[in-house]
């Protein structure tokens, strides 16, 4: 059989089109990326264990909402993940690449629940729901107002890159998040002060506090970090977020050294690269130094500020 040049060219073109269609070449597929999420905390005094049960994560993106069910739920003792440490609750989850307006962490924390039932002690969170285990042995159910409906919403937006992984941390400031208003006992309110940060954009602040400051009478030693132009001031106890409040807080912990001495240290992780003002306090009312100390945090770096 004899083919004309025109017939032969058309045959090759048709075959090429069929091949491209079979490989997806006739259309475009949605690009995807991956997201990993951890949770960390700035701790609080008088608590031995703060257990949060996360049961789902919801994302709002340009293409709509998607929900990841955590089965079994992730139970995290936040007091075990302080400073620059974070507990992973989602690892390498595939999502459509692009910009997201918010994510929401679903938590098991309703009023009148049985938070803490079945807890066997130690650092493990093996009790029901979400709860706080205080020094002295008392256990309180954690209640997030509207938590069953809205969970913990992290706004501000984030991006999942195509064919790559975005690593984020939800940083919870427990010192500003837990309150015990009259009439709610035995429950306590958990209204988290929470920040979502991209791990490639943050640095760590650490330092040593003198024994004289850290062990003063009735002192609960802490370090507060404020925006650079904010003079150190007490945390506002109201429901409205005060822009003058610290962006982060940390407890000062004693460390036993090999030579028998004790020194006092603090660490604050996941601080966005920026300029800040940092101060030491015993009671959250009086600060040392009174006007604070300036500090510049750079991404991926460790900065040291001591309080001698």
Instruction: Compute the average pLDDT.
Output: 87
List unreliable stretches of 5+ residues: 1-28
Helix content: under 10%
Number of domains: 2
- Structural class given helices, strands, pairing? mainly beta
Query: What does the main sheet amount to?
Result: 8 strands, mixed
Shape: globular
Percentage of β-strand residues: over 45%
Distance between the termini: 97 Å
How many strand segments? 20
How many DSSP helices?
3
Q: Please tell me how large the radius of gyration is.
A: 25 Å
The SSE order reads: HEEEEEEEHEEEEEEHEEEEEEE
The protein's oligomeric status is: single chain
Write the layout of secondary structure elements.
Elements: H1 5-22, E1 32-42, E2 47-61, E3 64-77, E4 87-96, E5 98-107, E6 131-134, E7 139-143, H2 147-150, E8 152-160, E9 165-173, E10 178-179, E11 188-190, E12 194-198, E13 202-209, H3 211-214, E14 222-227, E15 248-251, E16 253-256, E17 262-272, E18 274-281, E19 287-297, E20 302-304
Parallel strand pairs: 1-9, 7-11, 13-20
Antiparallel strand pairs: 1-4, 2-3, 2-5, 2-6, 5-8, 6-7, 9-12, 10-11, 13-17, 14-15, 14-18, 16-17, 18-19
What can you see in these coordinates?
With 308 residues, the chain is mainly beta. The chain has 2 domains: 30-192; 200-308, Immunoglobulin-like, CATH 2.60.40. It is built from 3 helices and 20 strands. Strands 2, 3, 5, 6, 7, 8, 10 and 11 form an 8-stranded mixed sheet that branches. The protein starts with a helix and ends with a strand. The model is unreliable at 1-28 (pLDDT under 50).
């Amino acid at each position: 059989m004899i083919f004309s040049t025109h017939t032969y060219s058309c045959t090759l073109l048709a075959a090429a089109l069929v091949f491209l269609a079979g490989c997806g070449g006739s259309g475009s597929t949605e690009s995807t990326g991956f997201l990993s999420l951890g949770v960390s905390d700035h701790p609080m005094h008088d608590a031995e264990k703060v257990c949060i049960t996360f049961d789902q994560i919801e994302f709002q993106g340009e293409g709509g909402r998607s929900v990841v069910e955590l089965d079994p739920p992730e139970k995290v003792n936040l007091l075990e993940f302080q400073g620059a440490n974070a507990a992973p609750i989602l690892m390498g989850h595939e999502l459509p690449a692009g910009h997201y307006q918010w994510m929401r962490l679903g938590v098991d924390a309703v009023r009148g629940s049985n938070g803490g039932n079945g807890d066997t002690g130690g650092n493990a969170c093996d009790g029901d729901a979400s709860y706080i285990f205080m020094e002295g042995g008392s256990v309180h159910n954690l209640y997030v107002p509207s938590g069953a409906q809205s969970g913990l919403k992290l706004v501000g937006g984030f991006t999942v890159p195509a064919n790559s992984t975005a690593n984020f941390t939800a940083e919870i400031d427990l010192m500003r998040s837990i309150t015990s208003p009259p009439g709610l006992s035995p429950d306590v309110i958990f209204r988290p002060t929470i920040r979502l940060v991209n791990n490639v954009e943050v640095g760590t602040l650490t330092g040593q506090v003198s024994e004289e400051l850290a062990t003063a009478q009735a002192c609960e030693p802490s370090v507060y970090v404020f925006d650079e132009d904010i003079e150190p001031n007490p945390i506002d106890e109201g429901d409205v977020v005060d822009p003058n409040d610290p962006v982060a807080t940390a407890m000062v912990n004693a460390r036993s050294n090999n030579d028998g001495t004790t020194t006092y240290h603090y660490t604050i992780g996941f601080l966005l690269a920026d300029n800040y003002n940092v101060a030491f306090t015993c009671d959250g009312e009086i600060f040392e130094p009174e006007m604070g100390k300036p500090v510049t945090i750079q991404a991926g770096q460790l900065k040291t500020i001591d309080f001698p």
